[in-house]
Amino acid sequence: MVSVGGNLYSVPDATRKRIVEVHTLAKKVQIFEDGTLIATHPVLDGRRQRWIAPGHRKMPRFTDRRRDERDAVLDHDKVVDTELLLDALADSHKVGR
């Protein structure tokens, strides 16, 4: 990741050098390694944001674990209703008292 203006922008995993050249234009950030363009990103407004371009990370990114109660939870290839799961947890908590 490269920090520009308080925001983080991704570079490909294959980037070998720790020092890269960054050009910040009105609407895009360009990142160069040894004079070769390796990434282009839109400029992010504000600070403390990050932009990861598709293909810049080999490991899959995990999705946001915070879910609405109406969503289902995937558990060992079986879909379980979140409300049912929460009720079962509440009941087990009562039994433990």
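^ that was protein a. below is b, sequence first then the tokens
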Amino acid sequence: MEVHRRWAVALASDNATDLKIARALFEIGDAQVSEIKVFTGRLETVLFSDQFERMSAASSVADASIPIIDAINGICFIHDPVRSPLRSSGVHSRLPGDWYAEQSKAEEFRKNEEERARIAASRRAT
């Protein structure tokens, strides 16, 4: 029986082999590392978790993925100490049939920069 997932956290690493190792080590269980085909047709390595399915916002999924990715990195480090850590590169949601980017690190960076600029401007005004 196929499980319909709504949320997936895109994973990145400096070394594609590290993504393959994570897929092999975490192919079953609550935290699963797998590949999805995004709407552009590109394959992307992602993290699935039952915890994500209870969430309604991409930002909540991104926050919830941090300790899971940290745990995966710890286990992968034990498996191979000379490796590149995995990191989140965005959140995808499944719309009828296809996966779409909901939040990317670039978008998050832009929002943080806008917030910093807003705070700096308000400080200058006072």
